[in-house]
Amino acid sequence: LLGFTSGTTGLPKATIHYHRDLLVICDCYARDVLRATPEDRFIGSPPLAFTFGLGGLVLFPFRIGAAAILLEKAGPPDLAAGIAEHQATICFTSPTAYRAMLTKADAHDLSSLRKCVSAGETLPKPIYEAWLAATGLQLMDGIGATEMLHIFIAAREEEIRPGATGKPLPGYEARIIDAVGQEVPRGTPGRLAVRGPIGCRYLDDPRQAVYVEAGWNVTGDTYAEDADGYFWFQARNDDMIVSSGYNIAGPEVEAALLAHAAVLEAGVVGAPDLERGRIVKAYVVLADPAAGSPALAAALQDWVKQAIAPYKYPRAIEFVDELPKTQSGKLQRIALRRIAEQQGERA
User: Fold this and answer.
1) d(Cα 198, Cα 177) in Å, to the nearest integer?
2) For residues 38 and 65, is the Cβ–Cβ distance under 8 A?
3) d(C-alpha 132, C-alpha 110), whole Å
4) Do 139 and 132 form a contact (C-beta atoms < 8 A)?
5) What is the mean pLDDT of the segment spanning 86-91?
6) Rounded to 5 degrees, what angle do the CA atoms 161, 165, 166 make?
7) Model confidence pLDDT, tens digit, residues 112-150
8) Residue 339: how many other CB atoms lie within 10 Å
9) Residue 184 in contact with residue 177, Cβ under 8 Å?
10) Beta strand 212-213 with 216-225: parallel, antiparallel or unpaired?
């Protein structure tokens, strides 16, 4: 099986997986963590050509003997309608889609759902809390990678800690390392390194030497591990913004913005600045597109200052109609960074 990465960080890479790998993800995640049954009906938005969709909509239901509902169109409105029409019980989609479906909760009956898996991008705590309040269901967060075929850190419902991704799946190990590959103390942010029954194998691609270090798969994510072994996402390694010497994680600022009722979506990147080197810039999609104004931008800045450390607030906010995304629905920050750079050159 050749699985192609989504290209969020540049040119896609072809990953090699064998038949045994397909069974590994079915038994390590679908059986031991998700705990689905033959009576379940799986539904979701990820394309089958991406491994998140391949697992959640093909391999898992096939392995368990459950049903899979494949929608021709799987945007949030279509997904919400499909859940209601087909009485789906397990949903696989992204945090962005779960947030968008909340606006359709009154129009479609989502009560058949019993498990909701969120992956593809980090799950902001405000989305977790909003979905729980609206449906009574916890979003089951997880981090996976095409290189590892599917999710390798997650948590069962009764073990979820809101804001944490979870713990390594059975058969996997994870640790946090520094720039030279040494493990760091608990609570210290660093590079996430994982190993287990599946590892990165690129098809004739020298970038394998970057992903695999001393037998560990280094995913490109900054995480911290707490005293109880839970892993907490900080940012993608290339999403860290250095402004006036401070390290600022873009996803943390995004989560703060998403907690505001006026914000539908947010993407945060570093933008060039003569005085600070870089500043935090937020591209915001509003729930009401007509509400954008300098006053609202200032209100959002004040909101972020109250929610997280004040120095992390976005010094620039631009209201946009949509954010650039990959085919699998993930925010394409590399495109946002390119836009910010081009805007900086013109300034």
Assistant:
1) 20
2) yes
3) 12
4) yes
5) 98
6) 70
7) 999 999 988 889 888 999 999 999 999 999 999 999 999
8) 17
9) yes
10) antiparallel
Domain around 96 = 2-236
pLDDT in tens, 233-280: 988 877 788 888 888 889 899 999 999 999 999 999 999 988 888 999
Instruction: Enter the tokens of residue 255.
Output: 């989560």
Instruction: Evaluate the CA torsion angle 306, 298, 241, 235 in order and state its sign.
Output: positive
- Cα→Cα distances 60→29, 45, 86, 150, 178, Å: 9, 15, 18, 11, 35
| DSSP string over 235-298 | EEGGGEEEETTEEEEHHHHHHHHHTSTTEEEEEEEEEEETTTEEEEEEEEEESSGGG--HHHHH
User: Which amino acid, 31?
Assistant: R
Q: Which residues contact 336 (CB under 8 A, 6 or more apart)?
A: 267, 269, 283, 323, 324
Other beta carbons within 10 angstroms of residue 324's beta carbon come to 16
CB contact set of 175 (below 8 Å; sequence gap of 6+): 183, 193, 216, 225
Same domain, 260 and 144: no
The 10 Å Cβ neighbour count of residue 153 is 26
Number of domains composing the chain: 2
Are 232 and 265 within one domain? no
Distance CA 182, CA 69 (A): 45
Give the count of alpha carbons within 13 A of 15, CB side only.
22
